Prior knowledge:
The complex is a heterodimer of chains A (291) and B (271). By secondary structure, chain A is of the alpha/beta class. Chain A has helices at 8-13, 33-41, 55-62, 83-91, 101-112, 128-131, 182-188, 244-253, 257-268, 272-289; strands at 20-23, 47-51, 66-71, 95-98, 117-120, 136-139, 147-152, 156-166, 172-173, 189-199, 223-226. Chain A folds into three domains: 8-101 and 154-226, Glutaconate Coenzyme A-transferase (3-Layer(aba) Sandwich), CATH 3.40.1080; 117-152, no CATH class; 255-289, no CATH class. In chain A, strands 1, 2, 3, 4, 8, 9, 10 and 11 form an eight-stranded mixed β-sheet that branches. A three-stranded antiparallel β-sheet of chain A has the order 5-7-6. Chain A is globular and about 65 Å long. Chain A starts with 7 loop residues before the first helix and ends with a helix. The radius of gyration of chain B is 18 Å and the shape is globular.
Amino acid sequence: MIDKVLSPDEVAGELRSGMTIGIGGWGSRRKPMALVRALLRSAVTDLTIVSFGGPDVGLLIAAGRVRRVVCGFVSLDSIALEPHFRQARQAGTVQLTELDEGMMHWGLLAAAHRLPFLPTRAGLGSDVLRVNPQLRTISSPYADAEELVAVPALRLDVALVHMNRADAGGNGQYLGPDPYFDDLFCLAARRSFMSCERIVPAGRLLDSGPPQSLLLNRAMVHGVAETPGGAHFTSCVPDYDRDEEFQRQYAAAAATPEAWQRFRAEYLDGDEASYQRAVRRSRASQPAVTP
Amino acid sequence: MTGSRGDDGGGRGAAASAASATGAARASRAEICVVACAEAWRGDGAILASPMGLIPSLGARLARLTFAPELLVTDGEAMLVAPDEAGDGERVEGWMPYRDVLRLVATGRRHMMMGAAQLDRYGNQNISCIGDWARPKAQLLGVRGAPGNTVNHPVSYWVPRHSRRVFVPRVDMVSGVGYDRAAQLAGPAAACHELRLVVTDRAVLDFGGPGHVMRLRSVHPGVSVAEVRELTGFELAMPDDVPVTRSPAPVELALIRERLDPAGLAERELA
């Protein structure tokens, strides 16, 4: 088996400005945050981000790397609205392709199946068609002649996803309750990079979970990075829950440029190891701050 | 969270002390709302009830424990949970990750109660943004699943604060499709469109007015029709007599207080 292990920064080195990048997970759940943080340390910019959006979108927007977001929502789940996405939309600094969640699913499925589009009812009658003049409808060629929305394939240059376990060859395993759409992101992309909590020896993935937890196989994955805590501060159950206290800190820091500057200096300006150290430091100091 | 019971402003505490004076159980406004939300799912069989918000979630669970026992409910993540006969809790009965929710949407076997930042008289709903979409005054969640939900399966709405900010003549970004727009569609998208109820902190509304415009169905105890009119930014269809929203039956009140929401958290959703 070919060893596909890379560091997060090596993964970021595979990305280019102007790319369309799909990011797995959902909202503030199992996001490949270590890979996103590595991207922030690179010079890559002018990106189109396809995501069931959470702080992945927020962090990239805050760093000025995003030209366009393709999504049905951007949310931190326990905090409904993503502050950086909000600010950028209200300032008009980011473009948006706003789709229904089911249309997102269909667009990824079309790309995964190498189809130009897939038909759906979702979107009919709504302003999704008004704000996306590029969307077309299609008539069923059968007797019903039903008019449907033709959701164009969401083809990705690169997909970034985070798994609980993986092997060095690129087989990936999720152990939480929801696979989200990470397999589709990988299949919709020309190249896919997976971070994981832990790399286990080849052949040992079934020690952690049943066969159906093996969501990704090595034909779908081009590089693997071992990043313990790599989904932080989003949830990565059963390894860890969302770090709600840290997420509150993240959201509060978006309030002013000065607060964001401090947050960035504290957490994001160093490498992944320094991020994880800063998180531990902040956790250790918490009891004194919040009884 | 602590178990504060919201003992002011006609909450459960006030309801309880009034009840002890009269010897009968009196429901708080939040409890009236829980039952009004539960009523949205009456008659639904083995379909997924998807409530957004605490009071709708209590409503769906109350419906399942009483008159709609076949309903499916999730834990808010990917597990389907059912009442545990052995105790007061819930046990896992199945699996419903997001991909299966989206599949179920297309089958029509779901009835969702969503929130709404804006709603118009035909039930067009907005949760995307306020102002011009190109550069909104306030970016909200995004359309989420509202466009697909509303052309595939029944949808109801929960509005914890009935106001002219929510009930507007025209919504800024149609996320959930209303009856006027559904009427322009043909085939299954039109046939599967159903907006059932709008439950607010003051009243219950439906779309039984002429041409499916929003109609006042009932006002909660202590709320006047004039008050609801005043808080609504468009003309509501009115039945000749507006009934009062029904109060919880004793068994419902007991389920809410003892089993579903012993800490009284529902009161806070209206605070």
